[in-house]
Amino acid sequence: MKTTVEISDELFRRAKIRAVTRGETFRQLVQNALQEHLEKDGAASEQKPWMKHFGSLRHLHEESRRIDAIIDSEFEQIEPEDSL
Questions:
Q1: What is the largest CA-CA distance in the chain?
Q2: pLDDT tens digits, residue range 32-45?
Q3: ∠ CA(46), CA(52), CA(54), 5° rounding?
């Protein structure tokens, strides 16, 4: 399949040089690099599936602190029936 991808001139030059030094075409270099990247990414997520979601609830830390403060405040109050 043919496709068009825009990359920076500098990255293109570096990739062409790498392909030549390895004795392969630019196309082969890109295919190999993409395949390695996808395999590495897939292997990492298969080994540690929880890592895919690690930190995704970070935005709730402040809400957790707020709820903890409310709970602490409520438990500090003495109920009349508890003071007997």
A1: 88
A2: 999 998 888 666 55
A3: 130
Query: What is the distance between the alpha carbons of residues 67 and 62, in angstroms, rounded to a whole number?
Result: 9
Cα-Cα end-to-end distance for the chain: 81
The answer to whether the CB of 25 falls within 8 A of the CB of 19 is yes
Query: How many other CB atoms sit within 10 Å of the CB of residue 30?
Result: 15
36: which residues sit within 8 A by CB, 6+ positions away?
none
Token pair of 53 as six digits:
């979601």
3-state SS, the chain, equals CCCCCCCCHHHHHHHHHHHHHHCCCHHHHHHHHHHHHHHHHHHHHHHCHHHHCCCCCHHHHHHHHHHHHHHHHHHHCCCHHHHC
| pLDDT band per the 50, 70, 90 thresholds, residue 9 | very high
